[in-house]
Specification:
mainly alpha; 11 helices; 72% helix; 2% strand
């Protein structure tokens, strides 16, 4: 018997088109999603263990425990979300199918970008690794660098492209959608707006806890129209950003065009702010304000990947796809 909450109005009981029941597939993918959540949760103690081992190394710089909190928060939230979504898929909930489809597409798109960018990044990192004079270990030879880059590329191709593509293929199926609608025939909060809009709302809301964590850890160093703001001003800046994203995401979820305009203006201002700041200040200033050890800053500077000019333009380029997507979802909104 289908579950139905009498407190929530039922969706119009129009006859569903013919479909193949995918209940078994929903259970299997739900279990796999739940296992992914457990794996994400294991990364938290692994991060802590890695930091403990690194701190015991000879001449190791002091560990910046605050710098670990954003990573712990990301993996912790991801673990909870995936376990929750896995259970929802097992129970064949329509909200779980919608959110897993959004998650899978986000995972796939980020995976494609990482598969293209990471080989270039890792090649630069390995090439700039200095020889260890104390142990007599020479710099990594070109053949070893090539092998490591190929291995990393294959790893990202499998786990960040092929695996999420399978999730997308399954949860995007009309048979999966119809199965969830038949087994969960009540209106859910994910039905309140089109999935493309809901996806942008979730991306916006995900930035809120990260801004809150940064404001509490001393890592709140933000570019602000030519200067870096840190300390209490930086923490207040992060809280303001969190408030903006919260309100804008809620308006957008309600298909209110005010949320769209608020996000558009904020993104343009943040992009201009980053360009102006990195045009006059070196990225090492940001690292120093965040309390990173000077030896670590020097090592990152040697790689030449995040020079101020490059970082400013990289910020602008990364904003363009989000602006393009924002323009795409405008057609779903009510006129303001």
């Amino acid at each position: 018997m289908n579950e139905q909450n009498p407190a929530i109005p039922s969706i119009d009981a129009a006859p569903l088109p013919a479909y193949k029941d995918r209940s078994t597939g929903l259970v299997i993918f739900g279990i796999l999603t739940l296992l992914l959540g457990c794996l994400a949760g294991l990364l938290v103690p692994l991060m802590l263990f890695g930091q403990m081992m690194a701190a015991k190394a000879p001449n190791a710089p002091p560990v910046n425990h605050a710098a670990m909190l954003p990573g712990i928060a990301v993996y912790g939230l991801l673990a909870v979300a995936l376990v929750w979504l896995g259970i929802g898929s097992i129970k064949k909930r329509r909200w779980a199918r919608a959110l897993l489809l959004i998650f899978s597409w986000s995972w796939l798109i980020m995976g494609i970008v990482m598969t293209v960018v990471m080989p270039l990044f890792m090649s630069k990192v390995f090439t700039n690794l200095p020889p260890n004079a104390k142990t007599g270990q020479p710099a990594m030879p070109p053949g070893a660098i090539t092998g490591m880059v190929i291995f990393m590329t294959l790893f990202f191709l499998v786990f960040f492209v092929l695996v999420p593509a399978v999730w997308v293929f399954f949860y995007q199926s009309r048979h999966v959608k119809a199965t969830c609608e038949a087994r969960d025939p009540v209106t859910r909060w994910t039905d309140a707006c089109p999935l493309p809009v809901l996806a942008f709302c979730l991306w916006t809301w995900l930035a809120v806890p990260m801004m809150l964590v940064m404001s509490l850890t001393g890592l709140a160093v933000m570019p602000c129209f030519g200067v870096f703001v840190s300390g209490l001003p930086g923490a207040l800046f992060c809280l303001i950003v969190a408030a903006i994203w919260s309100v804008a995401g809620w308006w957008l979820y309600r298909l209110d065009a005010r949320g769209w305009w608020l996000i558009l203006v904020a993104m343009v201002l943040f992009m201009v702010s980053a360009l102006l700041t990195y045009a006059h200040h070196d990225i090492s200033e940001l690292y120093q304000l965040q309390g990173l050890p000077q030896a670590q800053i020097d090592q990152m500077q040697k790689m030449g990947l995040f020079t101020s000019n490059r970082l400013g333009w990289l910020t602008a380029l990364c904003s363009l796809p989000f602006l393009g997507y924002l323009l795409f979802i405008k057609k779903y909104l009510r006129k303001w």
